[in-house]
Design a protein that fits this description.
It is a single chain. This protein is an alpha/beta fold and 608 residues long. It folds into two domains: 252 residues, ABC transporter type 1, transmembrane domain (ABC transporter transmembrane region fold, Up-down Bundle), CATH 1.20.1560.10; 235 residues, Rossmann fold. It contains 22 helices and ten strands. The strands form two sheets. It has a six-stranded mixed β-sheet, sandwiched between helices. Strands 2-1-4-5 form a four-stranded antiparallel β-sheet, with helices on one face. Helix 3 runs antiparallel to helix 13 and helix 8 runs antiparallel to helix 12.
């Protein structure tokens, strides 16, 4: 129930629908019982079991309600029979139809109102999950599979709707139906009803045995579903590589192994779950059979129960089976839903380590520079940066170079606060970035990465991501600065051309220039370029480099470079090795030192 309570908080905005559902269910339960009780007067007329009563009976309190109703029925039939027995029968049939109509009307209204609540909770739960997904730091997803996260937002949330939220329909209607029905049964025959209470605990115990392992089995199913969704996501993302290396069979085999596990787990889960309905029905029918035997003795041998009352009683007893089955299925649903809720709440309740401090500053300007002081950082066990210090004055371009794994990209991740430093501080204008709101910090920065991250939308939408509500003039101007306008105009629909998934309709150079245009349109005072030209051919590199130089004018830039030809004009070049600075200076100064930087230049055949 702990998970159920946590999920229920999402139902608060829809409490009006919940109240209307409860009211409708109360009337449904009431008329459901009355619909069966209304069979009694009709049967009495049909079987001609009514005694002649010419004096209208008097109400003597609830304790004699049964006698009063029987006497009033006999009085009503006696009065009608004097005129026409058919009129009494028509009235009784009309009463039965009216009761069943009201029962089904309120049943529909209950489902009508609960629909808004269930779908509202589903929507809000998905929105909260998505919001939490994009707010959690990048480090959270470094080891998690994307497909597993997708499974939690899609199928796990649906499982919660089908299992947990179905209880909201049953929590009032079915128990009340059982209570009203049992009250009517006790009124008819307390002795006969005692049999029901003897067998109900036995039935409940047998049903609970079936449901004990459902949560564990459901958890396996959902985890495996997340795994094969991950395989699908990775396959679609790396389809070119898979085809190029003829790895279709290997991936197909991996996927089939996962779906085979999913098949086995699902069969085990569903077969256990499907056992609920026949088990509860069989146990119910067993109780009914015993009641038929014992009640038959009371009618035929003891003559202590009227036949029409016994038939009505049996109809009421059978009516208990439907809500009892629904409750037993719902209890299985809770156990199955627990696994889904646990996976969903795991994300919702994950603490975000990178949050704004209380009274964090909204910084809107950049005046002096960026400072990294004695920064140490590790992703897992080994330090990637060790006591790293660096000053980037306003208006300067500082380039970071070094071999792979030296910590260059880590600095970009730390300055943008995708990760927080383990030791030391990073400051902007003397203010620790942890004291600046994340939004205002990132508003000061533009980021161009080696992998051009574009979205399945138009050219216009991808560029304008850098500035909400940007005009066409601003978008075109940004594209011109990024040397992208010419190729964009050559596309089928120009700026309204859809560039496909991850921009796959474009070349590498074109994608990179769109990324630059996006950063230019944002017009931030600080630019961070993370190996923005390393994956390009010579012609594309020339165009992109020209665009980068135009973009970096009058801006403070941190350039992480692989191709050293692109950073020769930087104000300072910092050479990193295993997370530490080994050299620092201008291009000419570092060449003169004849150290690590010169060796890197010579390796790229760029030495003068």
């Amino acid at each position: 129930m702990e998970y159920f309570k946590k999920i229920l908080r999402f139902a608060r905005p829809y409490k009006t629908f919940a109240i209307l559902n409860i009211i409708s269910n109360v009337f449904y339960a009431l008329f459901s019982t009355l619909a069966m009780v209304s069979l009694f007067p009709m049967l009495s007329v049909l079987l001609k079991q009514t005694e002649s009563v010419n004096i209208k009976p008097q109400w003597n309190g609830i304790s004699e309600a049964k006698e009063y109703l029987e006497s009033y029925l006999n009085y009503f039939v006696t009065q009608r029979s004097g005129e026409n027995t058919g009129d009494a029968l028509i009235f009784m049939v009309g009463l039965v139809i009216a009761m069943f109509f009201l029962k089904n009307l309120f049943g529909y209204l209950a489902m009508y109102f609960i629909t808004f609540l269930r779908n509202g909770v589903l929507k809000d739960l998905r929105n909260s999950l998505y919001n939490k997904t994009i707010s959690l730091p990048i480090s959270f997803y470094s080891e998690k599979r994307k497909g597993d996260t997708i499974a939690r937002i899609t199928s796990d949330v649906l499982e919660i709707q089908h299992s947990f939220l179905s209880i909201l329909e049953l929590v009032v209607r079915e128990p009340l139906t059982i209570i009203f029905t049992i009250l009517a049964m006790v009124t008819i025959s307390a002795k006969l009803t005692l049999f029901v209470f003897i067998f109900l605990p036995v039935s409940g115990f047998l049903i609970s045995l079936i449901g004990k392992s459902l949560k564990k089995k459901s958890d396996k199913v959902q985890r495996e579903q997340g795994y094969f969704l991950s395989i699908i996501e990775e396959t679609l993302g790396g389809l070119r590589v898979i085809k190029a290396f003829n790895a279709e069979n290997a991936f197909n085999s991996t996927f089939q192994k996962s779906t085979s596990k999913f098949y086995r787990f699902s069969n085990s889960l569903l077969n256990r779950q499907n056992l609920a309905s026949p088990t509860s029905e069989f146990l119910g029918i067993t109780v009914i059979a015993i009641l038929l035997w014992y009640g038959g003795q009371m009618v035929l041998v003891e003559k202590s129960l009227q036949p029409e009352l016994f038939i009505t009683y049996m109809a009421l007893a059978y009516q208990i089976l439907t809500p009892a089955k629904a409750i037993s299925k719902a209890s299985y649903g809770v156990k199955k839903g627990n696994a889904a809720a646990e996976r969903v709440l795991e994300i919702l309740e994950t603490e975000n380590p990178i949050v704004d401090r209380q009274n964090a500053i909204e910084k809107t300007d950049f005046e002096n520079g960026i400072s990294l002081e004695n920064v140490s950082f590790k992703y897992e066990d080994d330090l990637v940066l060790k006591n790293f210090s660096l000053n980037v004055p306003k208006g300067n371009t500082v380039a970071l170079v070094g071999q792979s794994g030296s910590g260059k990209s880590t600095i970009a991740n730390l300055v943008t606060r995708f990760y927080d430093v383990d030791e030391g501080t990073i400051s902007i204008d003397g203010i620790n970035i942890k004291d600046i709101t994340k939004k205002s910090l990132r508003d000061l920065m533009g980021l161009v990465t080696q992998d051009s991250i574009l979205f399945n939308a138009t050219v216009r939408s991808n560029i304008s991501m850098g500035k909400e509500g940007a005009s066409d003039k601003e978008i075109i101007e940004a594209a011109k600065i990024a040397n992208a306008h010419e190729f964009i105009m050559g596309l089928p629909k120009g700026y309204d051309t859809n560039i496909g998934d991850s921009g796959n309709k474009l070349s590498g150079g074109q994608k990179q220039r769109l990324s630059i245009a996006r950063a230019v349109l944002k017009n931030p005072p600080i630019m961070i370029l993370d190996e923005a030209t390393s994956a390009l051919d010579t012609e594309s590199e020339r165009l992109v480099q020209d665009a980068l130089e135009k973009m970096m004018r009058n801006r403070t830039s941190i350039v992480i470079a692989h191709r050293l030809s692109t950073i020769q004009n930087a104000n300072a070049i910092v050479v990193l090795q295993k997370g530490e600075i080994v050299e620092q200076g201008t291009h000419a100064e570092l060449l003169a030192k004849n150290g690590v930087y010169k060796k890197l230049v010579q390796m790229q055949s760029l030495a003068p």
